[in-house]
Amino acid sequence: MTEHKKHKVVVEEKEEPEVQAETKESAVSEADPAAEIASLRGDLESLQVKSQEYLDGWQRERAEFTNYRRRVDKEREQAYQNAVGVIVRRYLEVLDDLERALKNPPADGDGAAWAGGIDLIYRKLLAALESEGVQQMEAEGQFFDPTRHEAISQEPSREHESGQIIEVVKNGYVISDRVLRPALVRVAQ
C-alpha cells in the first residue's frame, strides 16, 4: 500500500507544473489584455500587408495576361491579313487583265456574248475580293498621296490643279486601311 501512495504523489507532482503554466498564462492574459490586443493588431496588420501584396501581384499578373491575349489576337489578325494580302495580290493581276479586256468589248455577234461572259467573271472576282475586305481605291480627281499612289508621269493640265490625279492607269487596292497595291496614276503639274 505504501508504494501505491507514493505513486499517486509522484503523479500529482507531475501534473502540477502544467497546471502552473496554464495559470501563469491566464494570469498574464488577465493581467495585460492590452498587450495581447496590441500583439494581435500587429499580426493583423502584417497579414493585411501580405494580403495586399498578394492582391497586387494577382492583379498585375491578370493585367499582363490580358495584354498578352490582346497581343496574340492582334498578331493572329495581322498574320491572317498578311496571308490574304499575298494571295489577293496574285488575283489583282487577273483582275487587271479582265478590266483591259472589257475596255474595248466587241459590239456585235459572238464577241458581244463573249464580252458579257467576261464581264460576269470580272464582277464575280471583284465580289469575292470585296468579301475578303479588299476595296478598290478611288484615286481619279484626288490629290496625289505617295503612300497610296505611284506616279508614272506628270503632265500639264488646264482642267486639274497641280498635284491632282488626271488619270488612273492601274487601280490600287486596300485591305483594312493597308495598301495592297498603290494605284498607278498620271498627275497634273
In short:
With 189 residues, this protein is α+β, with helices and mostly antiparallel strands. Helices cover 65% and strands 15% of the residues.
**How big is the Rg?**
43 Å
- Tell me the CATH architecture of the largest domain: Alpha-Beta Complex
The overall number of domains is 2
Question: What's the pLDDT, averaged over the residues?
Answer: 83
Oligomer: single chain
CATH fold descriptor of the largest domain: Hemagglutinin Ectodomain, Chain B
Q: List the strand order in the largest sheet.
A: 1-4-5
Query: Class of the largest domain in CATH?
Result: Alpha Beta
Terminal residue distance: 133 Å
Q: Order of SSEs, N→C?
A: HHHEEEEEE
Stretches with pLDDT under 50, minimum 5 residues: 5-15
Please report the total strand number as a whole number: 6
Number of helices: 3
Question: Could you describe the largest sheet, including whether it forms a barrel?
Answer: 3 strands, antiparallel
Proportion of residues in extended strands: 15-25%
* Shape assignment: elongated
Portion of residues within helices: 55-70%
Query: What structural class is derived from the secondary structure elements?
Result: alpha+beta
Q: What do you see in this structure?
A:
- The protein has 189 residues and is of the alpha+beta class.
- It has 2 domains: 32-132, Hemagglutinin Ectodomain, Chain B (Alpha-Beta Complex); 133-189, Nucleotide Exchange Factor Grpe, Chain A, domain 2 (Roll), CATH 2.30.22.10.
- 65% of the residues lie in helices and 15% in strands.
- The protein contains 3 helices and 6 strands, in the order H-H-H-E-E-E-E-E-E.
- Strands 1-4-5 form a 3-stranded antiparallel β-sheet. Strands 2-6-3 form a 3-stranded mixed β-sheet, with no helix packed on it.
- The longest helix is centred in the middle third of the chain and has 71 residues, at 33-103.
- The relative contact order is 0.08.
